[in-house]
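Feature request, filed as a ticket because there's no other form

It would be nice if the structure record came with a short human-readable summary line next to the tokens. Right now we just get the raw output. Example of a typical job, pasted below so the devs can see what we mean:
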Amino acid sequence: MKNKRKETIKDLFDLTGKTALVTGASGGLGRDAARAYAECGAKVALLARRKEKLEDVVEEISQLGGEAIAIQCDVTDEEIVKDAVEEVIQQYGKIDILLNDSGVAVRGGVHNLTEEDWDKSMNTNVKGAYLLSKYVIPCMIKQNYGKVVNIASINAIIADKNDLFIRHSYNASKSAVLGLTKGMAASYGRYGITVNAVGPALFESEMTKDTLFKSDEFLKGYSKMNPAGRPAEKGELNGTLIYLSSDASSYVNGQFILVDGGISIV
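Raw output as currently delivered:
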């Protein structure tokens, strides 16, 4: 039976009673998202390779009055992913929300990328989302409800000609995430499951703070081009994630929402 339609706008964004599974939750956008889910009432399962970092996030959520568990997980390893999902279900009984946020950005063009670098991007960014979805979707089908949000990137549709920032494997992998999102959305909508993707532009994170944010030339150029006149600030992705993860987006499926300050339109 599908969930009953909530009556007020405030209720539509309420995640009380929901369980969210977040990959890449040890830092950056995943960590921020996990906190946001907890603040909206969800119980949160945190997955990443760095268990000690996850424990820090569990403590932060606990201090907010929320509940979370930390599970060490390599999203590219099927058996590890399967065990992690089973652990979440054993702990919380269900998974209502899946945020696929694990990702890497390997610098280089096809002329100088190693096969290892290519595989690293595709395995983490695409295979990881596939494996988590493979083991979470059956749970969602059984309960006839689910919200899957895949973190893609503005670089799924926009590339950079600056040699310092060419990342062809990142472009390809994030474009693949959009294809996966559409396919899943078309197949699983009948089960009360929505699948959408988000395309962040430039946010400071572990992935960008030592590269893009260290180039004054790049930041000046980016800010000049972007209608917002600046990179994104911490937390500015959370509203979109909560919207797509809540009943407020009950009829939004297979979409790609850019959170980019408008840079994609100029």
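Something like this underneath would help us a lot:
The first strand starts at residue 19 and ends at 23.
Residues 9-205+235-259 form a domain with the Rossmann fold fold (CATH 3.40.50.720).
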